[in-house]
Every structure is written in structure tokens, then in C-alpha cells.
Here is the input.
Amino acid sequence: MAITSESGAKEFYESLASNIEIKPLKEKINWLAGEERKHEELLRRIHSEMFPGEEVRTPKEHIGHELKPVAKKLQDVKDIIDLIRWAMKAEEMAAQFYEELEKLVEGEEKKKLMRYLSDMEKSHYYTLRAEYELLLDWEMYSQMMHIGP
Here is the structure.
């Protein structure tokens, strides 16, 4: 599930970046896509160590039930500010997902890995939040420029 989740997040960020014209924001979203790719690679490597020779069995559904409302809302969103807001929500949920997994896995190394992934998802949330706040400030400033004296 985690591998599928990371892969889906990477694809989401790649798709989002392809529709962004603001260069610094595009670079930040591409960076997030790269981070999700690294998480996927890490999880695949751990899977191969834990289950040598076994292929990863991905769930039929690409996202967990907790992310379905987010995915459904994203289909209709066209505004970049709303997309960033929903991406922040998805990152919060991903952090919670790994926190719950930490409670379920056995062994300190696995628990540390889940804690690490949860912390990384939280850092993604704060990265997005900073961009979101900048966009809100820019939008307000842009609107004020059209009002005139």
C-alpha cells in the first residue's frame, strides 16, 4: 500500500507541475515528485530485502479509502491554490498513515522507518503550506494592483 501511495503521489506532483507556469513553484512541485520517487524506491528496496524474489503485490485500488475524498475533489479542481490546499490535505493524511503503520509493525528498525516516512510527509505538508501562503499573498497583491488608487 505504501509503495502504491508513494507512486501515486509522485504521479500527482508530476501532473501538477506540468500545469504550473510559475517557475519557482514548478521547481518546488517537481522536487516533491522526486521526494515521493525516493520514498517509493526506498520502500521497494526494503520489500526486496524482506521478501527476496517476491514481486510487490499492489492493491487493486491506487489509493486507500481515506484518500478517496481527496482524489474525488481533485478531479474537478482547476485553481492552483485549491490544488495546493488539497495536496496539503493528502500529505497530512499520508503522515497519519505512516503513524498508524508504526503502531502495527514489529521491530524498532521498521518503526523508525515509519516514523521517518511520517516526518517526511509532514515536511512536504509544510513545504506546500509555505507555497500556499505565498500564492495567497501574491493573489491578494495581484488583485490590489487592479483596484487602483
